Amino acid sequence: MDQRWRPSVTVAAVIERDGRFLMIEEETSEGLRINNPAGHLDPGETPAEGCAREALEETAWHFRPTQLLGVYISRFQRATTGEDITYLRFAFTGELGAEEKGRPLDHGIVRTLWMTPEELRATAARHRSPLVLRCLEDYLAGVRYPLEAIHSDPSIRGPGWERDSEGGDGEGR
Predict the structure, then answer these.
(1) What three-state secondary structure class fits 165?
(2) Coiled coil: which residue ranges (predicted)?
């Protein structure tokens, strides 16, 4: 029987402050791993909205995506189950807001870390995916695209969704 291929759509934040990058350390089925604040896109949200939500849930820091860093695809096979997963990642950079001190982090997040590029390169074997380092290198190389490169049709909101007060679709248009 043929089965339609459905990659897992994820969003990730590349957040830099004073030469250091906000990362998370999380429990995975492969052990403790380092990742960008990242997660799955939820139904009804744009990639930029999902990125802001995931950054807050995983780090307790508010984040506003202002630029698309890139769209990435990778394939992963779980060592424990053999499950074959393809990830389609939308990575963003933007403005770091306030920290919500005392806010609990998502289940599985052990801690947040502020790491230098050198520290991230040195810990590549502990990264959740090869996309962590690729996103960092693209960021450092100055790769940036406007948020308008991603069009989110209003239909993603589902029936009864009303356009926002500015008449846009949640992506700045």
Answers:
(1) coil
(2) none
Q: Domains for the chain: give ranges and CATH numbers.
A: 8-148 (3.90.79.10)
Tokens of 68: 């698309």
User: d(Cα 113, Cα 157) in Å, to the nearest integer?
Assistant: 34
In this predicted structure, the answer to whether residue 64 has a pLDDT above a threshold of 70 is yes
Positive or negative, the CA dihedral 152, 156, 159, 161 is negative
What's this model's pTM, rounded to 2 decimal places?
A: 0.87
HSE-CB at 19 with a 13 A cutoff on CA atoms is 3
Element (H, E) at 88: strand 84-99
**What is the CA angle 160-166-169, rounded to 5?**
55
pLDDT of residue 168: 42
CA distance 141 to 81: 36
